[in-house]
What we know:
CATH topology of the largest domain: Rossmann fold
Order of helices and strands: EHEHEHHHEHHEHHEHEEHEHEHEHEEHHH
CATH superfamily of the largest domain: Glycogen Phosphorylase B
Number of domains: 2
Strand order of the largest sheet: 3-2-1-4-5-6-7
Distance between the termini: 29 Å
Largest sheet: 7 strands, parallel
CATH class of the largest domain: Alpha Beta
CATH architecture of the largest domain: 3-Layer(aba) Sandwich
Shape: globular
Radius of gyration: 21 Å
Strand content: 15-25%
Structural class: alpha/beta
Number of strands: 13
Number of helices: 17
Amino acid sequence: MKKILYLCHRIPYPPNKGDKIRSFNEIKFLSRTGTLDLITLADNMEDMKYAVDLEKYCRQVMVFPLNKKLATLKGALSLMRGQSISQGYFYKKEFQKAVDKLTDSHKYDALICFSSPMAEYVFKAKKKMEDLAGTLIMDFCDLDSDKWNQYADQKTFPLNLFYRTEARRLLSFEKKINRLFGRSVFISKKEADLFKAYNPEAKNIDIIPNGVDHAYFDPEKIIISKKAPFLVISFFGAMDYYANVDGALWFAGKILPLIKKKVPEVLFYIVGSHPDRRLKALTTDPGIKVTGFVEDIRDYYASTRVCVIPLRIARGVQNKVLEAMSMAKAIVTTSPAVQGIEVYDDALLKIEDDPDRFAAQVIQLLQDEPLGKKMGRDARHHIIENFNWDHNMESFLNENSSYP
């Protein structure tokens, strides 16, 4: 049985948003292959209570609260010192002491960092890197540095320069990680290709795709008691996340009015926790509903005719796409949201970046229910065949690089 130390920038429970879904499933899988110790941060004090849920999978769970205001200040100081904001934002001395304590008392076969800022704890550890563990693994998921470039593209001076600085410095840090860690994991070939394009000397790259719990996200397990008198479009996600907020506002402002001209009885649901105040303000329109946190999003999937994923900023694999496909929903999405899924067949979902064409696809699927149902069935079949968590996570046990 292997001994594994797992460092994570956000507590991986409950698995209700992108990064937490992936990190939780990694922990669940790896716990079956060895002994796992977890050190993580919680940027919401309410999440501290979930340590007990993770103890089912880990020998030790250490959760440290992250004060966002203080973290922002530390991020700014990190920028002033010539480093990336991310390195300072997620760094806590208490976390470092926990890393040093565990690596002093245990010899780990592998040390896994989930998200690039966690590597700072490796570089600042008391022990030499080669003595920390038999293998150092970084799960980049997607290329965070490029995400900052996308933010810069959406902003004007001076914010665009600020974001480009962060992108440049974070990329330099990502290159350092790849140079010094034994393995660098990405969520898709497109993310690995992008990193290779920025860093031609990159080595030891593995591709480990996400999965989806298609037994849970199964439309047959949710029954609608009665048919609603309106046609429902839904967008799912954490609604305090910038990319989701931007996408929902873009859809509500540019696309939904075009749909209403043809299908006036439509209702747009924005489903997800901690909705931004700008999203709450949309509810002055009786055709828009903002739910906030919901206990079971499958109920909302069940009543949805068309899922929309109008992301203009995205990296990697979007779990909201996988879950909607698993729920056999008709989907209209932008190309950034599916760049890591390698879907080439528009029989599975519709991909449009232009507001007029996006609206036209939604209208067609609202009006042609049989077409939407066929798309949903094909999409679910694709998910079951290609996005199995256990199958994909087995790549963690294979130490041979999966990327040329």
